[in-house]
Write a structure and sequence with these properties.
single chain, 52 residues, 1 helix, DUF4295, DUF4295 domain-containing protein
Length: 52
C-alpha cells in the first residue's frame, strides 16, 4: 500500500487547527484495481489514517 502526505495547511493563528491533506492508495478487493483515498485530516490523526 502506498501512502503520501501532500500538504499541511494551517488555519489563521498558531492556536488554530492544523490539517494535512493525505492520499492513500488502496487495492479494491473486487477488481484488484487501485483507487486513491484522499482526505483532509487533523495533524494528530494522520498516523491513524494510514494505519486503517
Amino acid at each position: 500500500m502506498a501512502k503520501k502526505t501532500v500538504a499541511s495547511l494551517h488555519e489563521g493563528s498558531k492556536e488554530g487547527r492544523a490539517y494535512t491533506k493525505v492520499i492513500k492508495m488502496v487495492k479494491s478487493p473486487k477488481t484488484g484495481a487501485y483507487i486513491f483515498d484522499e482526505q483532509m485530516v487533523l495533524n494528530e490523526k494522520v498516523q491513524d489514517f494510514f494505519k486503517k
